[in-house]
Design goal:
The chain is α/β, with parallel strands linked by helices. It is built from ten helices and ten strands. The protein has a single domain, classed as Rossmann fold. The longest helix is centred in the middle third of the chain and has 15 residues. The N terminus is likely disordered. The structure holds adenosine-5'-triphosphate.
Length: 266
């Protein structure tokens, strides 16, 4: 497994790396971190180029341990940029604390092994099912089969069979969910992964978020809002600013609120 492949699995948006500045690799590894998963953004701003406007502007918010958080907003509002800061894809201003540790003080590779990402476009490698779900060979067959059965991927008989690259997008997406399931990281990011899947797969992914990841902190960029009420907290992003936040039921009641507008339009 090359370092690049490792990174793809952790962050998935591998194409972004080619455009990225050299990161600071240093920092201190903390054993048994994170224990809990409160996440706190303190005055976080981001611009992709020094001569460009900020795409995230002075973000301040907190996510509680085990909370299920939906990030919602129009195209180009800054949702992906926001989650990219959590894995330090780009240099940002301000601080993000996870379990009271400033993530800028951690080695970036270490940080990325602690956060699972289920990507918008599923990343599947031409290898075996096992290599796709557990590329670093850290998990038992039992754990891998458990993940496979959790997402009802019944078409596989053997972990060492080659993946058919013509699997449907839903099947590929479920393999990515299995990867996150076996990693058992306390923070799991779903990057708009309900956008391209069918209704049954969308329902299944939502069930995994609510039930299987019940003990984890989940942050999901949500394009389709059908399951928005299943989340504890919704952050509505517009032009790099959080313009609404709160529990979905309250936000949906707000007349002319951004969430209720987006919801009604679907
Ligand atoms: N790698 C990049 N380099 C330069 N600008 C970028 C980059 N990625 C995003 N942007 C710009 O930053 C702004 C926010 O984009 P971002 O992808 O975070 O929004 P989004 O809400 O996730 O959009 P979408 O729903 O379309 O995925 C946009 O103006 C976008 O063009």
């Amino acid at each position: 497994m090359t370092r690049l492949e490792n990174r793809m699995i952790t962050v998935e948006r591998v194409l972004e790396y080619t455009k990225q500045k050299q990161e600071n690799k240093g920092g201190l590894v903390i054993e048994h971190w994170p224990k809990g998963c409160e996440i706190r953004f303190k005055d976080v701003s981001l611009s992709y180029k020094s001569d460009q406007d900020h795409v995230l502007k002075h973000l301040n918010f907190a996510i509680k341990n085990k909370e299920k958080v939906a990030i919602v907003g129009r195209t180009g509002s800054g949702k992906t940029s926001l989650i990219s800061t959590l894995v330090r894809l780009y240099d940002f201003e301000g601080n993000i604390f996870i379990d009271n540790v400033d993530i800028k003080t951690l080695p970036v590779d270490f940080l990325r092994t602690k956060i699972s990402v289920v990507p918008q476009e599923p990343t599947i490698f031409s290898g075996t099912l096992r290599e796709n779900i557990d590329p670093t060979r850290q998990h038992s067959d039992d754990d891998i089969w458990k993940a496979i059965s959790t997402v009802n991927l019944s078409l596989f008989q053997n972990l060492d069979e080659k993946i058919d690259m013509n699997l449907s997008i839903c099947q590929k997406q479920l393999i990515c969910v299995c990867r996150a399931l076996v990693q058992r990281n306390k923070i799991v990011i779903f990057d708009e992964c309900n956008a391209t899947v069918d209704n049954d797969t969308e329902a299944l992914i939502q069930k995994v978020i609510s039930e299987i990841f019940a003990e984890y902190t989940v942050i999901a960029i949500m394009h389709k809002l059908r399951y928005i009420l299943d989340f504890d907290l919704v952050l509505v992003v517009d032009k790099g600013v959080i313009i609404e936040s709160g529990d979905p039921a309250s936000l949906l009641k707000k007349k002319n609120g951004m969430l209720s507008n987006l919801f009604e339009r679907q």
